[in-house]
Amino acid sequence: MSMLSEIENQILRGISAAKAYQHVENICRFGNRLTGSEADNKAADYFAATCSEYGLYTYFEEFETDCFEPIAGELSVVEPESKNIKYIPMRFSPSTSKEGITSELVDVGAGKEEDYREKDTKNKIVLLTRGFEETNFLSEICIASKHGASGVIVANYESWPHHGVLEPELFELEKRLLPIEPNPIPAINISLEDGQYLRECLLKYEKVKMRLRLQAITEKRVTQNVRCLLPGTMLPEERVILGAHHDTENTPGADDNASGLGVLLEIARVLSTHPCKRTIEFYSPGCEEGRSIGSWEYCKRHKSDLRNIVAFINVDMVGGGGDLCIITEGRWPDKKIITPEWLCLFVDKVAKELNYKTKFAANDIGTSDEGRFIDAGVPAVFLWKPCDVHYHSMLDTPEYVDPNSLKVVGEISGLAAWRLANR
Ligand SMILES: [Zn+2]
């Protein structure tokens, strides 16, 4: 039996799959939204301008953070064959000299300590294979550096290079940029097929020589969180937040996370004509990739009024297939982030009422923006469809985003926010 009121039915019918999807296409047209880049700023502006069109009050809150931008580079086999190979640098990889490095190649399997036994890797480029779901490679790079390697190539287990990162991926922000020890060496990502090609070369020839050149900038840049407010009619100082980050891992970011932005903008459009008792804040943080630094900044800046936040619903990667998950727990190597049970059950109840299936799940690769809010004492939950094979790759494009999935998540998160703002 449906418990939906007439006005709730109107809101649900109003959310358009096609309009949400149109936002995904529009946002991806700006280019890869690497934190602090022009495309990233354009996406933030687009979000604010669209909300402003719907009559919401928009604010930009700027902050400075470490940014990484690749400028140029090339990877090639130079001896005995000659072949160029496409690569993507690890985020925060050191650059090579202008000329690059030319070294012999050594296969070190998974790249763990035991894989170096009986191998001479001094001044050589090592080739290692990405473990399943592995995205952070600082420890492997340090092991390679300890064994004297001059550079590291990580081959993906899929047909494209994964955007791996050189961060230890610990929750604590101070540990974001730990040094590569004992010597900083460049590290890059290649595809499965190119990894197989290199391994075949190593079997065929006694020696394989490679050249790696990488020029990248690591510097502080300004980026921003965007806040768009639909003021409450009775308790305007209390607020419910719907969130979706606008930056990407130097990928097109259709699912991660233009999908969330599309969902939020559709909810904003529909709710703009149905104001609630409490304020609803449509929030798009910057610099989520890595350590949710935008949301960390938000919680610092708004420390004195965090208690006015009834709940934060984070919508990140919701355009793909597979299970729609309500994340009950985020797991960092140094911290567990637990979602309040009442909020998980609340969102699940809304989904059930709409006849949509959700699944409770833990997030084994950390948290998204909700993690910073939970850590600051704000009830926060994460809606996520984790089964996206194109995660953090150049194939995260609009053609793989399902408009109907945007509508489903729009209905669930929109109705949950509406009820939290009116109860
Ligand atoms: Zn994301």
Question: What would you say this structure looks like, in words?
Answer:
- The mean pLDDT is 96.
- By secondary structure, this protein is of the alpha/beta class.
- It has a 15-stranded mixed beta sheet that branches.
- The chain is built from ten helices and 15 strands.
- The protein is elongated.
- 30% of the residues lie in helices and 27% in strands.
- It has two domains: 6-66 and 220-422, Zn peptidases (Aminopeptidase, 3-Layer(aba) Sandwich), CATH 3.40.630.10; 81-207, Glucose Oxidase, domain 1 (3-Layer(bba) Sandwich).
- α2 packs across α6, α6 crosses α10 (403-422) and α8 crosses α10 (403-422).
- The protein has helices at residues 6-14, 17-28, 38-53, 138-146, 192-204, 254-271, 293-301, 341-353, 370-375, 403-422; strands spanning 57-79, 83-85, 88-89, 101-107, 125-129, 151-155, 187-190, 209-230, 235-243, 278-284, 309-315, 325-332, 335-338, 359-363, 380-384.
- The two termini are 21 Å apart.
- The chain binds zinc ion.
- The site of zinc ion has 7 residues, from α6.
